[in-house]
Design goal:
- The chain is mainly beta.
- The chain folds into three domains: about 100 residues, Immunoglobulin-like (Sandwich), CATH 2.60.40.1120; about 325 residues, no CATH class; about 400 residues, Porin.
- It is about 15% helix and about 45% strand.
- It contains 14 helices and 42 strands.
- The chain has an 18-stranded antiparallel sheet that branches. Strands 9, 10, 11, 12, 15, 16, 17, 18, 19, 20, 21 and 22 form a twelve-stranded mixed sheet that branches. Strands 1, 4, 7 and 8 form a four-stranded mixed sheet that branches.
- Keywords: Carboxypeptidase, Hydrolase, Protease.
- It holds the Pfam family DUF5686.
- InterPro entries: CarboxyPept-like_regulatory (IPR008969), DUF5686 (IPR043741).
């Protein structure tokens, strides 16, 4: 019998009055939305039940619900924690819409706890849930993929409140009060400053562990940002992965224990509140709170399916008592559904981040993230190479019509969301807001765009320096942007010193051969002042320290002319290969000389040289996420797996005037890992070998630090150029306890300080042949400055410190344990103990 015929028969029976048959076959559907009667905002996870029956459901994160039942009573009841229960009359029709408005409860009932024998029954439920984690954890699938929709909204709020003693609001608040705004959930004005929507395909596999996101469409509007590819990748599904079946969730650079993770009983207290029906499944409703209110842990409610002890929903919050900077409240709400294999999958996630006010009279910020996963496909792994790169933009990702966005949004936008999309364009075009956006971009990127010329000026950080060799050093740098070309990237700088009256320069050209896999070729020519022991090779990406090293007294300075050509390509599975050829000179401005090798026909003592090097660098970062936008690539870091770098250098004598043949090989590993409630450990290991005889400026020189600032990749109580090695091994370790101790001390708890410890060890030596290369005097008869090398005793420094002071400062007390009385041949005494300061903005 066709559906039309069945419908006709049913209607006929109803018409002639066969009520019993009707009850047996008719399905009644009640749908609608549960909202706050005051604010109009949807109430998530409200319970809706048919009065007198077992049929019921709960609302989603927007307050929408759909209830289906074969029996109908006279009314439904709608209840939610913190609100008065409301009843609504039902009519005897198959489909009806009932929008419920709940009023906040005026009184707070005293809690009554009833425990079964052996304690709260929630613990037995959680114990079984944790035992069954491997069965329902989506991470145990060989692979999965889904269609992702992500919406992110950013607002400025907390500027319209009444001040104490009728004080006038500050200048910023008065300005914000004149801008277009919407009304937030508390009935206060909020100014939308950022809105994005992203639709993508997300892929994951477990062995090897790889993820990939194909961003198909994206739209971004905001103050200080444009509809660019980098923002599109940051706002996609890759950064919204929250799996409560893992032991901890990595949120805002913090590891927060999951209430159903391995530490569930150590960190949390549980209370079985009720049993409710969610999507036709009866669930235990269990409240959980941290055992210590100041611990970095969630509080909230988890719903566990009574049939299979699997996660159904979770509402987890972290408030201001926990140790997260700038955060007044963090909330994650998730709905989990069973997919074909029986595994649970998070199909809907809503995140709310309400920031704290930096000062009592300043505004705050509110961020909302809404993400869905639909059309989940299980156990269909792709080839490993498919997952590289981990984030990929479609060529037409910017091109999407309003009809497309309407089709991929899970639900229609609320009136406030529509209003926010319209208002944000008005806000970003206000002149003062535009200026503020440009200042933010300048501070973050360090470059000032010149749109008409399609170039960026900078980095601003390197524009000025002052030292004993150059005097006042002025530098003007630039680079082209995508308006100039999406294939060619030109950059360079011109610098001048008022004391040495010498121009320095650099010119770099890079061409993008391919974007998948990422392949570039480039060339650079540089002529500049350098200093022995402080070079780009050992400074790394520490741009602030590189700028600082140009100030003050520069010991052992030299001019270097460098010519470099290079080829870099991603070769898949986390590998990146770089091949380069470099020719450079060493022209010292201090007494320097070296004695050629015995087998060299020319035994003349020399004070300068030229080297030609072939360089091969292999980098393996299987867990790293790379953001790519046209000709710009940025690493978003790695969270679980270490990063390895193997670098081999071959010096070729006679090639382009090279004076030496030599070999140099170095291997480094960088990683961090979580130690449960004890915090997180960061470490870097390295080793290298130079089995050749060459002048000491070509040997390994660990990075020292003579400043008053703590530098993460430096030996902070070692002087510049204090030690030289041709074989070495290094270990640098830092462990941050994240407030484990201070959170338990009443007087320190409110400060939200984090305690940490550090240790750095260096072992190394220099061969007798390399020591013999240094003569007593140079060709002019001046005494030649030598160098110090390590003995069998390693260099060791340890430290302890506090970070998160005023949310931005860090203080380290460092002890040098070995070579404490070492007066290096540079003539600079060592410092056995020092207190050093650093700072950065972090959560």
């Amino acid at each position: 019998m066709t559906r039309l015929l069945r419908t006709f028969v049913t209607c006929s029976l109803l018409f002639v009055g066969w009520p019993l048959l009707t009850l047996a076959q008719t399905i009644y559907t009640v749908s609608g939305r549960v909202t706050d009667a005051t604010t109009g905002e949807g109430i998530p996870f409200a319970s809706i039940a048919v009065k007198g029956l077992t049929s019921g459901t709960t609302s989603d994160v927007d307050g929408r619900y759909k209830l289906q039942t074969k029996q109908l009573a006279d009314s439904i009841q709608v209840l939610s924690l913190g609100y008065k229960t409301q009843s609504y009359r039902l009519t005897p029709i198959t489909n009806q819409t009932i929008d419920a408005q709940l009023v906040g409860a005026a009184t707070k009932l005293q809690e009554v706890k009833v425990y079964a024998k052996g304690g709260d029954p929630a613990y037995r439920v959680l114990r079984e849930t944790v035992r069954r984690r491997p069965q329902f954890n989506p991470a145990q699938l060989s692979a999965y993929q889904y269609d992702s929709y992500t919406k992110i909204e950013g607002y400025i709020n907390n500027f319209g409140q009444k001040r104490k003693k009728n004080r006038k609001p500050g200048a910023i608040s008065r300005l914000l009060g004149k801008l277009p705004a919407i009304t937030d959930e508390n009935g206060l004005p909020a100014i939308p400053v950022f809105i994005s929507e992203t639709f993508s395909n997300f892929f994951a596999r477990s062995n090897p562990e790889k993820v990939k996101e194909k961003v198909l469409k994206s739209r971004v509007t905001g103050v200080g940002v444009s509809d660019g590819g980098l923002i599109a990748q940051l706002t996609g599904a890759s950064f919204q992965q929250y799996n409560f079946y893992r032991n901890s969730l990595y949120v805002l650079q913090k590891d927060i224990p999951s209430p159903i993770g391995a530490q569930w009983e150590t960190v949390y207290t549980f209370h079985l509140k009720d049993t409710v029906t969610l999507d036709n499944a009866v669930c235990y409703e269990i409240e959980f709170t941290p055992k210590r209110a100041s611990d970095l842990a969630f509080a909230g409610t988890v719903w566990i399916d009574t049939l299979n002890m699997a996660l159904a929903q979770v509402d987890a919050r972290v408030d201001k008592r926990a140790n997260i900077n700038f955060i007044d409240e963090l909330r994650i709400e998730q709905s989990w559904e069973s997919i074909a294999s029986g595994v649970r999958f998070p199909t809907q996630t809503q995140i709310t981040i309400d920031t704290d006010q930096p000062t009592p009279r300043s505004p705050g910020a509110l961020i909302r993230v809404f993400a869905t996963a639909r059309n989940v496909v299980e156990n269909d792994p792709k080839e490993v190479g498919f997952y590289d790169p981990s984030i990929e933009l479609a060529d037409d990702y910017r091109d999407a019509t309003p009809l497309f966005w309407k089709s991929v949004r899970p639900d229609s936008l609320s009136p406030n969301e529509w209003r926010a999309m319209q208002v944000v364009d008005s806000v970003r075009n206000v002149p003062l807001i535009k200026v503020a956006g440009e200042i933010i971009k300048l501070g973050v990127l360090g470059y000032k765009p010149i749109d008409k010329l399609h170039i960026d000026l900078g980095p601003i950080l390197y524009s000025y320096a002052s030292n004993n060799v150059e005097g006042n050093r002025f530098r003007l740098g630039m680079r082209t942007n995508t308006g100039f070309s999406k294939k060619w990237l030109l950059s360079g700088y011109l610098a001048y010193g008022t004391l040495d009256q010498t121009f320095k320069y650099s010119a770099n050209i890079e061409y993008v051969l391919s974007r998948k896999p990422w392949t570039v070729i480039g060339a650079r020519r540089t002529y500049d002042l350098e200093r022995v022991g402080v070079s780009a090779d050992n400074i790394g990406n520490n741009s602030l320290f590189a700028a600082y090293s140009r100030f003050g007294t520069i010991r052992r300075p030299y001019f270097q002319e460098e010519n470099l050509v290079y080829f870099r390509r991603e070769i898949g599975r986390g590998f990146t290969q770089t091949l380069a050829m470099r020719n450079r000179t060493f022209e010292p401005l201090f007494p320097f000389a070296f004695q050629p090798q015995i087998n060299d026909n020319d035994q003349t003592i020399r004070d300068s040289y030229r080297v030609t090097e072939l360089i091969s660098e292999t980098r393996f970062a299987p867990d790293e996420v790379i953001l790519q936008n046209d000709n710009v690539r940025v690493s978003a870091g790695a969270t679980r797996k270490p990063i390895f770098t193997l670098r081999y250098t071959l010096g070729i004598r006679g090639a382009l005037g090279g004076d030496f043949t030599y070999h140099r090989v170095a291997l480094t590993m960088k990683h961090s890992f979580r130690m449960g409630i004890l915090g997180r450990t960061y470490y870097t290991l390295g080793a290298g070998l130079i089995p050749s005889t060459i002048p000491y400026p070509l040997l390994y020189m660990p990075l020292g630090n003579e400043s008053s600032f703590y530098v993460g990749n430096a030996y902070n109580l070692m002087n510049y150029f204090e030690f030289v090695s041709d074989r070495w091994a290094t270990a640098q370790v830092e462990h941050n306890f994240g407030g484990l101790l201070f959170n338990r001390l009443p007087l320190l708890r409110r400060l939200k300080w984090h305690e940490l410890v550090t240790a750095k060890v260096l072992m190394g030596s220099v061969s007798s042949a390399n020591l013999a290369m240094i003569p007593g005097t140079d060709a002019q008869g001046r005494a030649v400055e030598g160098f110090s090398s390590l003995t069998s005793t390693p260099y060791v420094e340890v430290g302890y410190g506090i970070d998160n002071i005023f949310k931005v400062l860090r203080i380290d007390a460092i002890h040098r344990l070995t070579y404490r009385d070492n007066l290096s041949r540079t003539g600079i005494p060592v410092t056995p103990f020092a207190i050093k300061v650093s700072g950065w903005l972090a959560f």
